[in-house]
Amino acid sequence: MTFIKTRSGRYLKLDSIIGFAIEEEKMEIEGKRQIVFEIIAYLPQPLNPAILGIFLSEESAEEELERLVQRLTAGKEKIVQIKTEI
Questions:
Q1: β strands within the chain, DSSP E
Q2: DSSP letter at 68?
Q3: pLDDT tens sequence across 5-56
Q4: Residues 6+ apart with CB under 8 A from 80
Q5: CA separation for the pair 46, 64 (Å, rounded)
Q6: With left for phi above 0 and alpha for psi between -120 and 50, is residue 30 left, alpha or beta?
Q7: In this structure, are residues 22 and 39 in contact, taking their beta carbons and an 8 Å threshold?
Q8: 3-state secondary structure of 41
Q9: CA 31 to chain centre
Q10: Given this model, what pLDDT does residue 86 score?
Q11: Strands across the sheet with 19-29, in order?
Q12: Chain-centre distance for alpha carbon 71
C-alpha cells in the first residue's frame, strides 16, 4: 500500500486518488501577488482536491509531477512526498 503526503501533512492512499494536475493560482508572497503552480491530487466526491506542492514556474511543477509519477510506478516507496518550492 502506497501513501502520498500532502503539503498540509495529510496522508492519501494512492488507491483513492483519481488523478493529478497542475493548476495556476494567484498567491500573495512577501506582500506581492504572484502566479504560482500547484500540483493537485483529485479525490472522489465529496472530498476536495489536495495540494501536493506549490512551485514558482510551470516547468518546475511539470518536472516534479513527472518525477512523482515515476516514483509511484516504480512502487518501491510506501510513503511518497514531493519537495515544494513554497
A1: 3-5, 11-13, 19-29, 32-42, 50-55, 79-80
A2: H
A3: 999 999 999 999 999 999 999 999 889 999 999 999 999 989 899 999 999 9
A4: 2, 3, 4, 5, 68, 71, 72
A5: 27
A6: left
A7: yes
A8: strand
A9: 24
A10: 83
A11: 19-29, 32-42, 50-55
A12: 13
- CA dihedral for 35, 39, 44, 46, sign (positive or negative): negative
Q: Contact, 17 vs 43, CB < 8 A?
A: yes
**Residue 18 CB contacts under 8 Å (≥ 6 apart), including other chains:** 42, 43, 44
Identify the pLDDT of residue 85: 86
Secondary structure (DSSP) of 47-62: SPPEEEEEESSHHHHH
Is-contact 65 71, C-beta < 8 A? no
Which three three-digit cell numbers place residue 40?
493537485
Grid cell at residue 2: 502506497
- Read off the C-alpha cell for 54: 506549490
Cell output for 1: 500500500
